[in-house]
């Protein structure tokens, strides 16, 4: 059995080696062949002679991941399950239960339920932790256990899950699940058409163009395109979505690489829907990749006003490469540039600090570029909006609360102890914010600032040089002051944190639809977009040279 596993893994390794050597002979071929031979011999000797039983597959997985870690976080090895998940995301439809999941230790945590799909009909809720799918324990499944929830149309699956400490069981009949690129659009009372574009899958252009046409037919005189939280997707769809508002033949983006064949320019290919209608694009720090291509093109070509917060800053382009056994290498092949020529990549993975982390481009190192009208824009750190709003910008404390699931977990507790009747009228109160602060104390929430991390590294260095005792008292005093500042930051960013909590809570009761309805009524970003659109003079002035 071990020999069979070993042979299969070597075939995979050889296939990967051939791929890497054929990507482009940008390095000396002899050096590549030499390193492959060394690795193959090393891999063989370890598996044949190590004192304990080895798993060739596990060792190869570790080797691959370690190698890719030195590149960028977007260059990844995909298993068959990963490949299938990506195809589902891009296609926008699959057969399953209609829930968003993420790994949570030995269980699968449900983070969102899609309205009227099987998981919803079975009574599942965000916060439920799936422990067993059919006869398989999630903890025993070494790969993506969530794939077990997908299957053929109308087939049934039984799951066990934990809710509020109690184990329960549900029987679910799978159905077709549609992942809409445009989950919501509506005509506002001031004749502004509001369109939410949540992902750039294969349906992005089709659904966005349909929404814009429908809104125009109902009397829309201006458009708000909401790309907040949109993580990106297909480059081709980004080009086509831009084409809705831009003439055929406009340059939207170009890609550059040391591999000549990846140096390309991408122009709009279709007839536009409307090149004159006033347009605002909403973005925030979670708007990435294809979202930045669209917002960057709209800004560089002075076609509309960008409102919100600086975008994520992902200026790298990936392409999947088939390897073997249904696996893929998702590899970064180039950088993309906006029409003005700027690359908005924020992190430079070619440069690392002493901890091996990619270096972020400093503001003073940004380069200036000119839009079509001669306005100055900058590279190096995402798309900077024409109109910036603090409410769109996530502070370090808010990011930490989200990353550590503090907001999510509080919303789960809130749901089981409160009732809501109307998504439009709900507003997270100051009293409830105080409850949240108390919850953080009981849940032992903590996070480290960049300053704290640097201080800890300084202390370790001092210890190695024999100076630890000399600076220990100062170190303790500084950390105490930082703790006070962190506690104060919670109150300083109260409105920002309340908005995040409000969004998460609304989704528990009223799904995505209720969240968008609440945003239309209460979002500061949408209110600002409408203010700009309803003031032609202000709109024109923003786009002037």
From TrEMBL:
Residues 87-165 form the PDZ domain. SUPFAM superfamilies: ClpP/crotonase, PDZ domain-like. It comes from the Bacteria. Keywords: Hydrolase, Protease, Serine protease. CDD domains: Peptidase_S41_CPP. It holds the Pfam family Peptidase_S41. This is S41 family peptidase. It comes from Zunongwangia endophytica.
